[in-house]
Design a protein that fits this description.
By secondary structure, the protein is an alpha/beta fold. It is built from 20 helices and 13 strands. The termini are far apart.
């Protein structure tokens, strides 16, 4: 039987779990529908920028037939010295494209580009596989390197890609892995020949299901486990979950008498015994008594650029682009709403965000947030970037009250919260079947990840599409702060 076709991505999947390759081939429709377009786009942008690191280059179009790409690569290899990007090679049905190939008179150098800020083991598998293919194709590979993002680099007015990218020589590590690569390829081929379409491989659940990446087939591979099970315990470390799983402690019934964290046992107890809501009035009243009018309910939305877009920012820095603000100025007062959403073309986005917020929070009332650490960190970053705004950012931080605390501390807990204190679990638990508070009913944006992707997509959209997306962003963020208003109402109700 012919050897299977392996690319560098499919090889790396098999290093994680060989069954992924079988599922990709025979049951691809069972993969979770994960929206990775934003991550893929960032990867493409980083890859395209990195191609400029060594000056002029010859590019092999990746949308062409593989055999055409390989033939073009062979032609360009003759024109040494030169730089070839997406250089394509095949050896014994093992295929790879090299992000950047430095083609010198005495051999070649491999540069694998990653949009990550650190080197991971799987990157070494990736570049080692490329070394294997190229060296067995008759090339002298002098060096193998990984190019990745330097998130300590602060952008000036102009982007300096020599500062943005780190280049690490991993040749020694790659050479040490060559026997492993050969053996793995043999095992992968044996595995796929042993398991045809009608002969599904055994499922083995272990740490590799999430390392280095969360497997898209997790739901499929765990379909026969009791529901809920050990993997549904909120907050438990993954290695602890797998330890219990391997001990045969899988269902909540298996776990209810285990020596584990009290919060995990509480989640199990509430689920199995359908307990009434736990309400510790004293702790909740302590939070309520700390509130001072006017009450400002605020929530930020942020996005991240792999390639820093704005002066004085770093790669993957959280860039605040939107807030929603509900205000109650006095006890019994009516509910006001203010909001801010940056323009997609704004080059001073962070400062304009901050100035708008400062203008909307002029008094020293309670600034109510859900997960104080996030908004407070953004404010500190703003103060560091703009010293003239630092006092105002500190003032706002000093007035912050975290509405998440009673749920994180389990002062208020119900079965429906499923062990979580995320607002996406708390809100429907407090207000079940309320369409006004259901994120599913929003027209376009339903969570923070979608909000970030929506904002980042604006520049590529038509004016009509931009209007629609902006409306979706405003409705989503408005619900986040209205949700906090309703949660506060519920806390007052249960303590009155």
């Amino acid at each position: 039987m012919d050897k299977i076709f392996l690319s560098k991505s499919s090889y790396c999947k098999c290093v994680q779990c060989q069954k992924i390759l079988w599922l990709d081939k025979y049951k691809p429709g069972l993969a979770a529908d994960e929206n990775n377009e934003s991550a893929l786009k960032k990867g493409r942008e980083v890859g395209e920028l990195a191609k400029k690191l060594f000056g002029e280059y010859e590019d092999i179009p990746i949308d062409e037939n593989i055999s055409v790409r390989i033939k073009k690569t062979q032609e360009l290899l003759k024109n040494k010295p030169n730089i070839i990007t997406e250089a394509s090679f095949s050896f014994d049905n093992n295929f790879c494209s090299v992000d950047i190939l430095k083609n010198d008179s005495d051999g070649v150098e491999i540069y694998e580009v990653k949009s990550s800020t650190k080197i991971k083991d799987v990157f070494l598998d990736d570049v080692s596989y490329q070394y294997f293919v190229l060296s067995n194709s008759g090339l002298t590979v002098k060096k193998a390197c990984i190019v990745y993002i330097n998130n300590e680099y602060i952008r000036g007015k102009d982007l300096d890609i020599t500062q943005l990218f780190n280049i690490e020589d991993v040749t020694d590590a790659v050479l040490e892995k060559q026997d492993e690569i050969r053996e793995n390829i043999g095992r992968i081929n044996d595995f796929m020949q042993e398991h045809d379409k009608e002969n599904e491989p055994e499922t083995v659940l272990e740490k590799k299901c999430f390392d280095p990446y969360s497997c898209e087939y997790w739901d499929y591979c765990t379909r026969d486990l009791p529901k809920p099970n050990v993997f549904d315990i909120a907050g438990m470390q993954r290695r602890s979950k797998f330890k219990k799983y391997n001990e045969g402690k899988i269902s909540f019934e298996d776990l209810e008498n285990e020596d584990i964290n009290a919060k995990y046992l509480e989640q199990i107890d509430f689920e199995l015994n359908n307990r009434e809501a736990k309400i510790e009035k004293g702790a909740i009243e302590e939070l309520l008594d700390s509130l001072k009018y006017p009450l400002y309910f605020i929530d930020y939305e942020t996005c991240q650029y792999a390639i820093p877009e704005f002066e004085a920012t770093k790669a993957y820095q959280q860039i605040p682009f939107q807030y929603s603000l509900h205000i109650i100025r006095e006890e019994g007062g009516f509910l006001e709403h203010k909001e801010y959403l940056a323009e997609a073309e704004d080059e001073d986005i962070i400062r304009n965000f901050a100035l708008s917020m400062i203008g909307d929070l002029p008094e020293d009332g309670s600034v109510i947030v859900y997960n104080k650490g996030f908004e407070a960190s953004r404010n500190r970053e703003i103060g560091e970037m703009y010293p003239d705004l630092k006092d105002e950012m500190e003032r706002i931080n000093g007035n912050m009250v975290d509405l998440m605390v009673p749920f994180r501390q389990r002062n208020y807990y119900t079965k429906e919260m499923k062990g979580s204190y995320s607002i996406k679990y708390v809100l429907p638990a407090l207000y079940p079947d309320d369409p006004e508070l259901d994120y599913v009913n929003l027209p376009l944006v339903h969570n923070g990840g979608e909000a970030s992707e929506a904002f980042l997509s604006l520049k590529d959209k038509t004016p009509e599409e931009q209007v629609e997306i902006r409306q979706g962003l405003l409705k989503y963020c408005k619900l986040d702060t209205y949700a906090m208003v309703k949660i506060l109402e519920k806390l007052r109700d249960v303590t009155s």
